[in-house]
Amino acid sequence: MEDKKKMSIVSEDGKIEEVEVVIAFEFKDTNKEYVVYTKNEKDENGNITVYVSRVERESGKPKLCGVESESEWSRIKDVLRELSKDEK
User: Against a cut of 0.70, is the pTM above it?
Assistant: First the structure.
């Protein structure tokens, strides 16, 4: 069994939460980094909820930011589809 990668995030209300990293990746053409993580919450269908954030490193510390454009979302969804194929 492989070790699960954990990271701590600070929520908007200042609470520190430990979450599990599903995958982190970068689009080389844009140099934008992303992280997909989960708090192991389940939705009404029993699926685990995942979150996606863009990683900014300008201040030295990594900061999680929202994904703003539809084109970014489209590419991220492609990565997640490939990941889910690998899991099956």
Answer: yes
